[in-house]
Amino acid sequence: HALPDFLRRMTGAATQLDEIQCPIVTAGGKHIAIDWRDALLTDDRGDIVGIVCTGQDVTERNEAQRETRRLQMLLAKTAEMTNVGGWSINIATNHLTWTAQTYRIHEISDDYCPTVESGIGFYTEESRPLISQAVHRALTTGRGFDLELQICTAKGNIRWVHAQGSVNLEG
User: Rounded to the nearest 5°, which phi and psi values hold at 161?
Assistant: First the structure.
């Protein structure tokens, strides 16, 4: 009887109050994480008429995020140890992304925003036409490349690099 009256009065809005994650031990002894969200319910005059509290088990999400961070750290450490950088181009936007090791190889700060043109610009005068043709061919035909070329770093150091490219047409 009270619930229908409450629902009739509930014509205002819900204002989120808090969001907190709490560890819980289930009756079976399993440790899980619950995201709790609380919201005040108000009527059309703004008077508080109730509170809604919801909880969602986020244990699997948290574990997946921890595993992702662990794998990212492993990949970064591997790249550093082997001096291997990586890059990708979003063909739709022509946006170039470098890995942290690629910035180190080019001896440039990680706040630098590379473009396809500026990335190619690091190659020496002799190597630039080769990498330009290879990238263009990859983008137009989908064929990858595997070249050993020279770059001139931001600090003016000449380095040999092994440039490989492959095209991934999926998201």
Answer: -130, 150
